# Entry
Amino acid sequence: MRRQHENEQQTEKALDRNMALLFFWGGLLCFLLIFLGCASPPAANNLVQAEAPEMSPRAEAAFFYLKFRDFLQKDQPQSAGQALAKALERDPSPELYLEQATLYWRLEQYSKVEAALLAGLEKFPANRSLTLTLSRMYQDRGQKQKALEILNQYIADHPRDTTGLRHLARLYLDMKEYRKAKAVIKNIPEADWTADEHYLLAQVYSALDKRELTIAHLKEATSLKPTFVKAWAELGYQHELARDYVAAEKAYTRLLELDASNKEIYLRLIELNLKLNNPEKGFKLVQKGPAEQDFLLRALALFLQNEFTDQALRFFEVFDEKILKSPQGKFYKALTLSKGGKDLDQALQLLDEIEPGQKMYAQVLSLKSRLFWERGDLQQAVATAGQGQELFPDQERFWLLQSEILKSQGRPEQALAVLRQAQKRFENSLRVHFQAGVLEYELGQRQKALELMERVLEIDPGHAPAMNFIGYTLVETGQDMQRAFELISEALDKDPNNGYYLDSLAWYYYQQEDFEKAWEVISSALAAAAKDPVIWEHYAEIARKLGKTDEARQGYRKALELGAENKKQLEQKLLGM
# Structure
């Protein structure tokens, strides 16, 4: 049985090589056709000169096969095809038909690929390599039903052919017939399972969202075949999905041992170490990785995204020359220097060195505007955002940014005017309508704010912040309390730990005079958003209703400490207690 299995594995490897040839030649086609278009056409008497002296048919076939290889080497596919046809006339074999199919695939003559394989099967019925190659060809050309018919017929005649069953399982996987794929694999005696069977079952269980079984079979696959690169990669990914970053790191580390030059694996390992709050190990991996500009920039981006600013600065100590050769590198250094206000002047100087024609120039202007804003140069910040509006009229970010800056200057009417211009330009922008709604509300235009939030929900019915905004506003005004409850509850379904949504629900219960429920929910809201003065004020109001005087005083004081807008009102409440 073991010997039979080894033979089947060898046959499948040969089959994979045949299909690899098909893809290889297909990939070279464009290059070869361009080359042949410029080259002189082969002499018409090439094959005449190639006629063999009298010899046995098998010897003649070998001679023409050698000519076929020679013509291929010289990039003369037409002459190669003629030579191969002569070899087939003299001594046909499954291997020669496979060579012919490969040649036609290279020339993108797919009907001839099919014809060659069918002709081979006519002479050599049920030949495994020809049958499975034909099935694979149909599958790769999107003719999956034809592929399935051929495989089913073959399996009916060879029910214990492990290679055929494996191909059938792969086809069912490709067709998203996961349970059928599983059933086919289970038809292979478990004693004969190899790493391939476990890998196929892992793919089935992954598609069926059964992660534990997926991981178990991937572990079996890598145990049976320690060099199984695809299985190690999938194992690492599945561990990531399960948020088991330690196990994922082990899998990717093993993968890196198998392919030490693969920068994508280095990047995955770096990101995992950052998720594990181990930036030092992540930086050591950067130093071990390929010293290429693209790799360094992508690694640097990971450190910035994960807020490891100190380690990001080390990139410029160690790799400064390589990184700063690119505009992207200058942008990243400016971004790194700007975080925490380390050196805003140098950051702005680096941004000035980036030419307007660069792809990232919109990001450059956005960052410049924010840096001017942070430095206190509000006029320049507004002007830079305006420059972004002129150069990139299709990017809403510059209207939103300019509005934010104007609002921070205590000019909410002008901020709203900018957003109203943006609303005309970006009719379906969720961010523009939402931010305009917030400003309308703050300026006392409650009904207009509600209309804008309803517009947001028209564009995106699942927009949780708009749901919460409408729900909370309805609670405040005592309108349509049932809808208010439904909207707030739906927002919480999407984001159960959002402190602001919890506060809205607590305030709904308060307005319904269900103070015990309100107290329970407001405590959860504070745990999630303890720096919001409005939530502390609500906490105080609910505590007061329940006779919790000490908690009420604490709530009012915290609201005042955090800069509550209704300062005098809260102070009076404190004095009255």
Summary: Confidence is low (pLDDT under 50) at residues 1-50. The CA atoms of residues 149 and 408 lie 69 Å apart. The first helix runs from residue 2 to 38.
